[in-house]
Structure prediction request, 516 residues.
Amino acid sequence: MTYEDHAYQGGLVPPPGCPAHRAGGGPAGGELLRLFGPEAEADPAGFYEKLRAEHGEVAPVLLHGDLPAWLVLGYSANLTAMRTPSRFSRDSRRWTEFQQGRVAPDSPVLPVIAWQPTCSFVDGEEHRRLRTAVTDGLNRFDRRGMRRFVTRFSDQLIAGFGDHGRVDLVSQFAEHLPMLVMTQLLGMPEEYGPRLVEAARDLVKGTETAVASNEYVVESLRRTVERKRSEPGQDLITWLIEHPSGLNEEEVLEHLRSVLLAANETTINLISETLKMVLTDSRFRAHLSGGQMTLPDALDQVLWDSPPFMLVPGRWATGDTELGGRAIKAGDMLLLGVAAGNADPAVRPDLDTPLFGNRSHLAFGSGPHECPGQEIGRAIAESGIDILLTRLPDLQLSVEEHELVWRGNWMSRHLTELPARFTPRSELHPQQRAASAVAGAGVAGGTGTGTGALVSTPSAAPGAPGAPGAPTAPGAQGATVPGPRSAVRPPLPPAPPVVPPQRRGWWSTLLARLRG
Ligand code: HEM
Prediction:
């Protein structure tokens, strides 16, 4: 047995025929770089530059389980991959590694790469059918209506810490706002918001209870979808159900789940990073107060320098082809290096030059799959930060910048905390403070004010799933919301249990889709 046979069987290097082997050698010493683990995750920007210096526009890398893939580093090569679906498909079932059974059933790449019946995983006519249903719905929200929602929830959150003089802007603001707004756009009962915030946080952190949290999200959506069938409203769930594209039940649910989670995760990152920049970067502080750089400009600078998705997995080659001088084989996987492309010296020779509203970054993708929710993500981030800075004008970082910590994975990285201080404000409306205290504690039960013009106040039909008296899942915990309005509100789905149920159910669903 040669060294290579031995190493392959022991999982050290990829099998013959993989992109890595065809790449003409790995970095110095012949060792291919892994896209996961301490080196890549501690300093992704440095890692990408190392790869760019070694390989140019497209680099061979290893994913978890040492699965081979191409990381697209060049700005122009990324655009080509994004805009040429005839060569680079979104259908993950084409991946050679799947077809040859080399992806372990518990691989951490599966939740994002395993094929799902959504617009993100299809091309051509089927993509148009599914995507139109989503975009037609999203386009019905206007910016002023969005701002009303964002103002209401931002004020609630600020009221929860306004008289303390201290706040962690990540855990007390950024991690709540997008989900609270998104549940309203979807037409979900307001009571679901705080628990969904907790479930989404748990999912992203990948803790033991992640599977249960995923089930909680799906169950909340399922119940709301069932109710919207008999009680339509002015909301995304109703518009998806009624759309002429004729989405089936699974397609409706899968789109809602992926929209809710993708919108939440990315917008949290955008808010956190922009707040960090506003509070730490003297250029922005000066520009913002001097009126030279607007908040939208600051958001774009962040979308260039710290895009919420550092990379997007992925695209799969439809046939043998070429990209950035590399021979790509049919079925190879490409990872779109959004952060690396944004920092490509070919388009940005000096990364310190401010971009003043230049929106040609890759943060929202490009081509047929370009993010259809970008205006909503921007509106939540921009209005939320604007309201925060208006209410707390002397907000400043309460630690040294070098003390800030990020946690990361192969796709994105997140600020863990953004501690800030400000002059306490006691004049906030007591009703707002009470509402926020409930939301901040992650306990179900909102004010039920429902003042947003875009969403009807939900109420469940007697006997309808999710209505009072409807059956709850076995083991449901703390399902109903006490309070004056609980009589007309649906009970919450069971809260995520502390100990996750069998993993098998979720994984086997994923695997079934893969095989299908
Ligand atoms: C700052 C916030 C956001 C960022 C940075 C972002 C980023 C992205 C990126 C890079 C893609 C393209 C993936 C690809 O090319 O394969 C994408 C797709 C998508 N995004 Fe966003 N997103 C954001 C917010 C949102 C929001 C708020 C929504 C919904 C309200 C949303 C819904 C979607 C959907 C449905 C797709 C799939 C489109 C398709 O495949 O045709 N996103 N997003």
User: Anything to note?
Assistant: Residues 263 and 430 are 31 Å apart (CA to CA). Residues 82, 119-120, 131, 134, 138, 259, 262-263, 266-267, 270, 308-309, 312, 363-365, 369, 371-374, 376-377 surround protoporphyrin IX containing FE (CB under 6 Å).
